[in-house]
Design brief:
The chain is an all-alpha fold. The protein contains 15 helices and no strands.
């Protein structure tokens, strides 16, 4: 168990603002950029190899096993919060807010509108209000995602996160209060079995924001290493893929009969992927917080706990998926030996 001292070191009861040692800008982080590249490729291949692009094409199932596209969107949410935390460390002011918003607009809007324009020829069934709504980042809020480019659904989430961040930056609430409120509203969305009044949309966006503020907390509250060490990236990614297929909360809720057919695509069940996303980003950026080793153990035990019953029943080698899961878990178990080696 993490002791009270460790909990204080996590600074959950402090103000949600950057620690002084985290304010100076760091050198370009190649490992972080590699992780962003991997996530982008995974999401791209997920859509390219899926039925949306060519319903008649069926890739080898092994490619599907090794492509954690859906969880990589949530990984991007944490990465987004982390990067914003790295780049936004000064005091809140009207001028700073304008600069922040202008950077977001310049970075996102031009290429996003280009994507919308390229999608219009493939969106013959969409009304013009849907296209305009997507151009204004309203997909999932007031209009459906444009038919010609379903991958754009997450952009409206990001814009909402950027705006919600302004409240944290301005008000500087306690970290624990922010997490408690966001998780509580996420939980309410699962407990309320209705989509009326936009409840599920509201809960879905806040569930995604839970991932986002974890990245912000990592950037603002966890001190970067004084000296870089080697990163067992392959082992981390193996565990990431294995954990993705387990879907721990979804499996647990199914066993308990605790389901909600009204929830949106990002919901309480997807929060089960949060530990492995945090482990991957914290490991790659080498921001080791109190309890990091416990997080490693928990993330490794999740696939092991699912493999043990299969092994005891003699069913482990009956399906190639279970064999691959065992191989990935075995390769992932190596990271505990590698993450302390110096460069």
């Amino acid at each position: 168990m993490i002791g009270s001292t460790a909990l204080r070191d996590l600074e959950l009861f402090g103000l949600f603002q950057p620690n002084p040692q985290n304010v100076p800008r760091r050198a370009f982080d190649w490992a972080l950029e590699e992780l962003r590249g991997y996530a982008a490729l995974a999401v791209g291949f997920y859509h390219a190899l899926g039925p949306d692009l060519d319903p008649g094409f069926q890739p080898h199932r092994l490619l599907g096993y090794l492509n954690p596209g859906p969880i990589c969107v949530l990984l991007f949410f944490i990465l987004s919060g982390y990067v914003i935390g790295l780049s936004t460390t000064g005091a809140f002011s009207k001028q700073a807010m304008i600069r922040y918003l202008m950077r977001r607009v310049i970075r996102i809007v031009p290429i996003y509108w280009l994507a919308i324009a390229c999608s219009i020829p493939f969106s013959e069934t969409d009304h013009w209000t849907t296209i305009v709504g997507n151009a204004l980042f309203l997909q999932g809020l007031t209009v459906p995602v444009i038919a010609g480019n379903g991958a754009l659904w997450s952009l409206s989430y990001e814009v909402v996160f950027y705006l919600l961040f302004l409240l944290i930056w301005w008000l500087r609430p306690k970290v624990v209060a922010v997490f408690a409120i966001v998780f509580g509203l996420c939980l309410c969305g699962w407990l309320i079995s209705t989509s009326a009044f936009g409840i599920q949309i509201f809960a879905s966006f806040l569930t995604g924001f839970l991932f986002w503020i974890v990245g912000l907390w990592l950037a603002w509250k966890v001190e970067p290493p004084a000296h870089e060490k080697s990163i067992p990236l392959v082992s981390y990614l193996c565990l990431f893929i294995a954990f993705f297929h387990i879907r721990p909360f979804g499996l647990l809720f199914q066993v308990l009969g605790w389901t909600n057919s009204q929830v949106d695509r990002v919901n309480l069940a997807t929060v089960g992927w949060l530990p492995i996303c945090l482990l991957l980003i914290a490991g790659v950026t080498q921001r080791k917080f109190p309890g990091f080793k416990w997080l490693q153990v928990i993330c490794l035990l999740v696939p092991i706990a699912n493999l043990i019953p299969l092994l005891l029943r003699g069913r482990l080698f009956q399906q190639d998926f279970w064999i691959l899961l065992a191989v990935l878990t075995g390769m992932a178990s190596r990271f505990g030996e590698l993450d302390t080696r110096p460069v």
